[in-house]
Design goal:
The chain has one domain. It is built from 6 helices and 5 strands, in the order H-H-H-E-E-H-E-H-E-H-E. The chain has helices spanning about 10-25, 35-55, 55-65, 90-110, 130-135, 145-155, and strands at about 70-75, 80-85, 120-125, 140, 170-175. It has a 3-stranded antiparallel sheet. Strand 1 and strand 2 (about 80-85) form a beta hairpin. Helix 4 (about 90-110) crosses helix 6 (about 145-155). The chain is globular and about 50 Å long.
């Protein structure tokens, strides 16, 4: 079960697609090492389709249909590499992370356009044992320009600012 996006409306979807196009025209989309060749070719359109009319769940379902490799090359702590199994929930984590990243970028654009006064972190997915760091973020406001810039720069992978990350069950809403 995916995230509950409070502001996933037509305007947000439109801006999500614009942000995907922005990435495609520039540095490209985030491309996980878990994607197979067929998925790499389909990834831009799968992501756009989810933004236009789907959700992180529909993107996850698409990825679960033979789009991931079974193993990937992983670095060993003491040097060298080994082949490791792709995590069983990789399709969910990747879909949630990327869909949420474009969602947050779209909401940041809405704030910057004056459609709302800010962004606030909230729990969008229930978890059995929430992380303390995630719980502390709930209810905090985050700067829209900073969110937009950092997510454009990092594609949502290891951002330098405290924003909702994949597997946290958190996202943002307009305030």
């Amino acid at each position: 079960m995916g995230l509950r996006f409070e502001n996933l409306d037509g305007r947000t979807r439109e801006l999500m697609v614009e942000e995907i196009d922005f990435d495609l025209a520039g540095s490209g989309l985030y491309e996980s090492r878990y994607l197979n060749q067929r998925a790499k070719a389909a990834w831009p359109e799968l992501t756009k389709d989810a933004a236009r009319q789907g959700s992180d769940d529909t993107l996850s379902q698409a990825l679960s249909r033979g789009m991931l490799v079974s193993h990937y090359e992983k670095r060993k702590p003491k040097g060298g590499t080994t082949m490791a199994a792709v995590p069983y929930n990789a399709h969910e984590t990747m879909a949630q992370g990327q869909f949420n990243m474009y969602y947050m970028r779209a909401l940041a654009l809405r704030v910057l356009a004056g459609e709302a006064t800010g962004l606030e972190v909230y729990r969008a997915k229930g978890v059995d044992v929430p992380r303390e760091s995630s719980e502390r973020m709930i209810g905090t406001r985050i700067d829209a320009q900073l969110v937009l810039d950092e997510l454009r720069r990092t594609k949502g992978v290891d951002p330098d600012i405290r924003i909702p990350l994949p597997n946290s069950g958190l996202t943002v809403r307009l305030v």
